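step 3/5: co-fold with copper (II) ion
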Amino acid sequence: MNHALVTPAQRTALGAGVLATSLLCLLPLAPSASAHGTVITPETRNYGCLQRWGSSEPDEAQDPMCYRTYHENPNAITAWKAVYANNTGDSYKQVIPDGQICSAGGQGETNYRPLDRPGPWKMTSIGSNFTVDLYDEARHGADWLEVYVTRQGFNPEYELIGWDDLELVKRTGRYPYQAHYVTDVSTSGYSGRHVVVTVWKASHMDQKYFLCSDVNFS
Ligand SMILES: [Cu+2]
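step 4/5: write tokens
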């Protein structure tokens, strides 16, 4: 008898284990599915709403975009860390349509479409040299980060963001599993309202996050 052979029962258990592991990030209700991440500096649209208002109703006059987001789908704020799309491949710019970049093409774990809406989102003031801090609660790792800025003259208060409106200002290398991926970005020629779009390619699978942060270059 060969003791190295795996019994059918063991094989089933093994298969179930592998399957469970690979499904962890896909099951909306699994506890671990809530472990993902976002850009906390400069804060993303929904993370900013969460910081200012928690899970309560934002004040309409003070923060109209968070107010509208809350009323369209409050989960778009409380599920701030799951704005991702799976299996988009290398040509992800064809998979994620223009005008749906800030919602990861309407994918992710809830309806993030309110995050695409143009309007007077609260901005973080930054200089031409700034730092992006991506918080990876799940420690997925990062194969790379791409940081884009909307081109000068494009007005995200009135226009939906398309890929043609974005200029790549940084592409990083790989980061090992850790809680924060921090990168310095140098730009020139930007002033006033812009959106910083960070694309995070997680390392555990083809899971890309599309993270929009409203900034004021001053
Ligand atoms: Cu995840």
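step 5/5: annotate
Helices lie at 8-23, 45-53, 64-72, 75-78, 92-95.
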